[in-house]
Amino acid sequence: MKKTLIASLAVVLALPASSAMAQQKMGNMKDMPMNEPKTAMPTTHSARGTVKKVDAGAGLVVLAHDPVKSLNWPSMTMGFAVKDKALLDKLTVGKAVDFEFMQADRGYVITSVK
């Protein structure tokens, strides 16, 4: 009986110590990189439109575009920035183009033109 009581007492006394040790070890892990969720890739949208204005200096183009189903947008005329100013070579006033764009920090940016 005495042995059982001593064994039980040892287990009870060891529990708080093991808990404290586990917390101390976890505290050391706070600077370790964790598997954080990956940020989603920006969604690219496609549309067809007609070039209304090109401002090469500002890297902007105004397009009258067809509805954009992925954004639930109706047809409208709006300005876009271009990701690469080389895309402006494909954009001349009056030309119909297929283009892809995505949302950026300051509006929508054309990423490709066909």
Task: Tell me about this structure.
The chain has 114 residues and is α+β, with helices and mostly antiparallel strands. It has a domain at 44-113: OB fold (Dihydrolipoamide Acetyltransferase, E2P), CATH 2.40.50. The chain is built from 1 helix and 5 strands, in the order αβββββ. A 5-stranded mixed β-barrel has the order 1-2-3-5-4. The radius of gyration is 31 Å and the shape is elongated. The relative contact order is 0.16. The mean pLDDT is 82.
Low-pLDDT parts are: none
Mind telling me the CATH superfamily name of one domain? Copper binding periplasmic protein CusF
Task: Tally the helices.
Answer: 1
Share of β-strand residues: 35-45%
**Could you give the order of strands across the largest sheet?**
1-2-3-5-4
- The overall pLDDT average reads 82
Determine Rg (CA atoms, Å).
31 Å
Helix content: 10-25%
CATH hierarchy: architecture of one domain: Beta Barrel
| CATH topology call of one domain | OB fold (Dihydrolipoamide Acetyltransferase, E2P)
CATH class of one domain: Mainly Beta
Essential attributes:
single chain, 114 residues, alpha+beta, OB fold (Dihydrolipoamide Acetyltransferase, E2P), five-stranded mixed β-barrel, 24% helix, 36% strand
